[in-house]
Design goal:
This protein is mostly beta strands. Helix content is 0%, strand content 46%. Strands 3, 4, 5, 6, 7, 8, 9, 10 and 11 form a 9-stranded mixed sheet that branches. The protein is globular, with a radius of gyration of 19 Å.
Length: 144
């Protein structure tokens, strides 16, 4: 895919840069439909998260999801979601808004969103809270 850069610094410069691995959303000429090797390969629908054996990504706003964690890294980008992750998780990151995440246990919990609550049923996770109006509490409904 080619990206045209416009820079204004006393004069207008126009250049063209090739960007490898980019694709247009919705199609177009020269679009490479092959999945990116850095992203999980299982595409989700409105009620399914994107997942592979190492990573679980929950991005559908308003979703109610209960899923075994199976030691995976979890990223919740959805807004107004209710996510229950039974069992042990690696790292759990909540970046959405107004979401509740319950985990059985986690090595690390990272909050960078707004008005999110993450609960853990057991363990002593490392907590990194850069969010606004966010909290991490012991308890919740997830199974250990």
């Amino acid at each position: 895919m080619r990206v045209r850069l416009l820079v204004r610094s006393g004069a207008l410069l126009v250049g063209t840069v090739s960007v490898a691995g980019c694709a247009l959303v919705g199609g177009g000429e020269g679009v490479d439909d092959a999945p990116s090797p850095s992203m999980p390969q299982t595409a989700g629908t409105a009620s399914e998260p994107v997942a592979d054996e190492d990573t679980l990504v929950v991005s559908d706003d308003g979703v109610e999801l209960r899923e075994p964690c199976d030691g995976r890294e979890v990223v919740v980008t959805a807004d107004d979601a209710e996510v229950v992750l039974d069992g042990a998780c690696g790292s759990v990151r909540a970046t959405g808004r107004g979401t509740t995440v319950d985990v059985g246990s986690a090595d690390r919990i990272v909050l960078v969103g707004v008005d999110n609550v993450v609960s853990y049923a057991s363990g002593d996770p490392e907590v990194i809270n850069h969010g606004r109006g966010t909290s991490v509490v012991e308890g919740g409904v997830a199974g250990v």
